[in-house]
Structure formats: C-alpha cells, structure tokens
C-alpha cells in the first residue's frame, strides 16, 4: 500500500505503480497510514486462525444474517446475526460497575429474551447512528414493528 501524506500521492506514482485506489470513508485524514492500518486489520480478520473463535466474525456488525448462520451448541444461541446492522451493547463482569448494573434481561438466563433484547438494541443503535443501513438490512416483520414503535 502506498500512503499519501496531506495532499496525496503524485499521480505518476498512481499511474505507474498502483492497480487500484481505496477509500475507508467519507472523511479526510492527514495521511494514508491510518487508512492502510484499517484495511490491514479488516482483511487480516478474514484469515483462518486470526480470531480466537472462527464464529466471531459471523456475530458482529456487518456479519451474516440469522438465516445464513447455522446455530449449533457451539455457537452463541443468544446472539443474532447482524445482517448489516450495528452491533448491540456488550456487558462484562462485574454485573454492577460504579453503581450501574447490566440490563436485567441479560441476567435472567432466558436465551430467547436475550436474543430479542439484543436484536432490538441492534435496531435501535442502527436507527440512531446509521439509519441508512436499515434500507438494505434483512428485517423481519417483528423488526419492522419494533422500528415503527420508536
């Protein structure tokens, strides 16, 4: 990767040495180094063995939809495929941190309720932060009803 600084790379370098140009988004950086690091990280995650659990890439933002995921005893049963939505909030231990507790639904042990809560959180976060993604997302009738209630 060739990373420009400030105003980019000399066009002759682009013409003679590059087979394509990439963009990491609609914003301006001082140099291409951060963009190159973003691309390197995103691509490296796709290589077998890079992530600790092979299923990790399937259960995250811009991952597979529920229909594309085979739920097994080894896969997170209380997790939704993202289907192009942003990820739901994550909580770790302890259950209480500086007076703030985890949502009660996450502690009740009911995987169906946890799945529903997580899906609603995905929809809510996507509607707030990236509503453009909803147009292409794989939404169920229940998803649409929830979005209409917001």
Task: Please name the defining characteristics of this protein.
150 residues; mainly alpha; Trp Operon Repressor, Chain A; two-stranded antiparallel sheet; elongated
What does this structure look like?
The protein is mainly alpha-helical and 150 residues long. It has two domains: 11-44, no CATH class; 58-149, Trp Operon Repressor, Chain A (Orthogonal Bundle), CATH 1.10.1270. It is 31% helix and 3% strand. It has four helices and two strands. The chain has helices spanning 11-17, 33-44, 111-129, 141-149; strands at residues 96-97, 100-101. The protein has a two-stranded antiparallel ribbon. β1 (96-97) and β2 (100-101) form a beta hairpin. It is elongated.
- N-C termini distance: 44 Å
CATH-defined superfamily of the largest domain: tRNA(m1g37)methyltransferase, domain 2
Strand order of the largest sheet: 1-2
Largest sheet data: 2 strands, antiparallel
CA radius of gyration is 20 Å
Structural class: mainly alpha
State the helical fraction: 25-40%
Which CATH architecture of the largest domain? Orthogonal Bundle
CATH topology-level fold name of the largest domain = Trp Operon Repressor, Chain A
How many individual helices? Answer: 4
* Series of secondary-structure elements, N-terminal to C-terminal: HHEEHH
